[in-house]
Each structure stands twice: as structure tokens, then as C-alpha cells.
Amino acid sequence: MDLTDKVRAVVAANVAGDAAIAVSGGRDSMCLLDCVTRFRLIPTERLTAIHVNHMIRGAEADADEELVRRFCEERGVKCSVTRADIPALAKAHGRSTETEARLVRREVFAKFGGTVLTAHNKTDRTESVLMHIFRGCGINGLTGPTERDGFLVRPLIGCTRDEINEYVRLYRVPYSDDRTNAESDYARNYLRNKVLPLIRSRYPGVDDAVSRLGDAAKLVSRADGVTVSVGGSATVRTDGLDGSRVLAAMLAAGLTTDYTSEHIAAAVRLADARTGAGIDLPHGYRAEKESDCVRIYLKEDLPDEEHPFALGMTRFALGRYVLAERTDERVDKAGSIIDLGRLPSGAVLRTRRDGDVFTPFGGKRRSLGDWLIDKKVPRYLRSRLIYVADGREVLAVVGMAVGEALATGKDTTCAVRLTAGRDIRE
Question: Which residues form the Lysidine-tRNA(Ile) synthetase C-terminal domain (predicted)?
């Protein structure tokens, strides 16, 4: 099969409704976008192109964005662009720009809410698997990117970079070359530019060999008992917990490299630890014992922060925000609608503080910590929540519960819906 046939087969097997294509403007993603639209593999009215401008390369990044916008306009495809200051976010979070960019892209793709096609190819898979091996991975790390991973679909995963180059030449597909790809400072670029050419000179079939290894690893890896939450954390039940299931949870949470056998063994031992015990893992991840499971998550606590309550959007550090909008609704089981007329004049939006108390609707006044424990709110999530408060009195847990003081009723004349989220466009 040629490239078009391979892409057609993957799309037919994995895409049923609306879909998006992640398009950087580079050769691979422009090849995928051209192939899908040129041969109508997905109807244009059901297709969206997603572009993330990482704001790393200044005018060059802006030119990539313009290339994608212009191509989409010519093909009649909806184009969704997100601008994220990756260097600033990486500095704020203490992560590398590579890691920050990957996390931002993953969040953007997840927000689409449907199938997202990416341009990872067979050569990318070789690079990923070898990087995992060099960093010290388990069985899951040998899998690398596959045809489908949750909502992500990779139609080019069976195509080599040479096949992509030939398609681009044949159909004269416009694309941009990222000059940083020629620099070997980044780990993947070093592997691509320095190491793999030497390997291919002796083993020209390395891409096919690594793909077979990845397929075999996928068959033997164990992911039973692992649950991934909306926030991206992964939990695995403590019953019969072993290293392979801890590895599966790490992979599901996004931690795929640089862990050691000591990390895995320590996470397994959490099965017999007290609730709340935990260990730190590479790249800002943490494993923590909950009542009947171990959770793997990326640490990202909000600093102590306070803002006057106001309608509209209130922004917090790390891209977090609260959106307060008037609504005609009065009852919301999600606990996000308050009676604005009952809000004290000095009320604020803030993060959690020691000594906070909360009176839930229909309940008794008690410490906020005790209420969160009773509601089984995971420890890792408590410091990420945003609260409506008046002094030490918490009046609402945004997106989770409204207290007695702000509950809506028959006399409510102005109801406001509170929504918490994270906006990476800074």
C-alpha cells in the first residue's frame, strides 16, 4: 500500500464522527492534512485543524501559524489556533520546554472533545522507543506511539519519513521547516541527527524492527485496573498491586521515561501504606495512596492567591481561572450556581487556607478539610480547587458545592454560574 491507502485504512477504522487534525505546519502534519482533505477521507464539514503556536521561535512560529490558516482557508477547513507561551509556562512550572509543550498540546487536544489525528509516523515511533530504552523504561515504554491511543489516532504510523517526503514532493504540499530540528541540543534531535543515521547505515530495517517490537510489547503489557481521570491522573487499585500495573498507571498519567525500578517498587509498597502517603516521581509526578488505590498525577499546586469576586473571568496563577456568568437556571446538581444577592460585599475568590470552615447546603458548619475528606476529594485535588470565601468562611467550592449562605431559592433574583478551568493561552 502507498501512503494514501495506509492513511485511508486507519481513518476508516478509527474515525466515525467529527475529527480534528493536529497541524504544526511542518512536513508531516501538512502531509496528513493534505491527504485527508485532497482525497475527502473525512468530510470537510466534520473536520477541524488544530494549531498550537508555542511562541518559541518568534516570527517563524507566527509564519507557521499563517501557513496553516491559509491552507485551511483554501481547503475550506475550520482552523482552531491556540497561542501558548511555552518558555514562560515551562519556567513557571519548573519543567523543560519539551515537556511543557507536550503537556500543553495534550490539553488542547483533550479540549476538542473528539477524535484527534496526529502525524506521528513509523520513524517517530523508532525514535520514541529508543529514547525510552536509553532512559530506562519498562515494557510499556517499548510500545511507543501506536495507531490509536484513546482519542488520539495516528494515520501515518505505518509510513516512514521517506514515504512522507515522496508524497509531499508528488503533490507539492506546502510546509515549513523548523530550524531547531537541525540543532542537536534537544534529546530527540540528537538521536535523530546523530545516532539513528549510524544505526541505519548498518541496520536499514530498524523502523520495521522497532515497530514489531512495539506491537509485541503492547500485547504483553498489562493495563488492567487502571483508570484515567478527566484531569489526566491515573489510579490503580491496591488489590494485587504489582510493578506492571504501576507502570501502566505511570504511562496512562503521562510519565513514560526516567523512572527507575526503585520508583516502581516504592509505588507498589504504597498499597500497604496509610492513606495520604506518597512518593515523588520524575518530571514533577507523584504517586499517592488513596483509600483503595494508588494515584499517579502531575503535581501542580496553586500558590496562595486572592481576588475580589467579580462577574466575568478571574485569572489565577498557572493559567487557572474562574468564570462567573449570570444564568436563568436556579438548580444545578453540579453545585455551581450561587445567589448573587446573598454574596457578602467583601467576598473573594481564593485558594485554600488553614482554618477554613464550610457550611454545606442543608448541613452543619465544620472544617473545610473534614468536609473534603468526607466527600472523598483526593488530597492532590484539594490544593487545586478555588473557593468563594468571606474571611475564613468558605461560601462555595467552585464547580463542586455551594454552601448554605449562597444557595439559590424561590426568592433568587440574580443567579450566577461559576465555572473553574485552565486557560493555557497566556
Answer: 347-418
Q: Check pLDDT > 60 for residue 1.
A: yes
Beta bridge partners of 387: 350, 397
The answer to pTM > 0.85 is: no
Axis-axis angle for helices 86-93, 97-112 (nearest 10): 110
Is there a binding annotation on residue 26?
yes
CB 412 within 8 A of CB 341: yes
57 annotated to a ligand binding site: no
Distances, alpha carbon 161 to alpha carbons 120, 302, 304, 352, 386, in Å: 10, 42, 48, 50, 46
CA distance linking residue 8 with residue 14, whole number of Å: 10
The label of the residue with cell 486507519 reads: 10
Query: How far, in Å, CA of 287 to CA of 295, rounded?
Result: 6
Instruction: Please say whether the beta carbons of 47 and 20 come within 8 A.
Output: yes
159, burial (CB in 10 Å: exposed 0-12, middle 13-18, buried 19+): buried
Q: What is the CA angle 147-151-152, rounded to 5?
A: 40
Q: 3-14 and 27-38 helices cross at what angle (nearest 10)?
A: 70
Q: What is the pLDDT of residues 88-117, one digit of tens each?
A: 988 888 888 888 888 889 888 888 878 999
CB 415 within 8 A of CB 327: yes
Q: Is residue 24 marked as binding?
A: yes
284 a known binding residue? no
Give the three cell numbers for residue 388: 468563594
From the list 214, 216, 239, 217, the residue with the least C-alpha distance to 226 is 239
% of the chain with per-residue pLDDT over 70: 92
- 247 contacts 223 by C-beta, under 8 angstroms: no
Q: Read off φ and ψ for residue 37, nearest 5 degrees.
A: -85, -40
Query: 215: number of CA atoms within 13 Å, CB side?
Result: 10
- Amino acid in position 51: H
Is residue 392 within 8 Å of 355, Cβ to Cβ?
yes
| Backbone angle region of 292, left / alpha / beta, with phi > 0 → left and psi within -120 to 50 → alpha | alpha
Q: What is the pLDDT of residue 425?
A: 36
- Between 119 and 250, the higher pLDDT residue: 119
27 is in an annotated binding site: yes
CA dihedral 361, 364, 367, 371 (to 10 degrees): -50
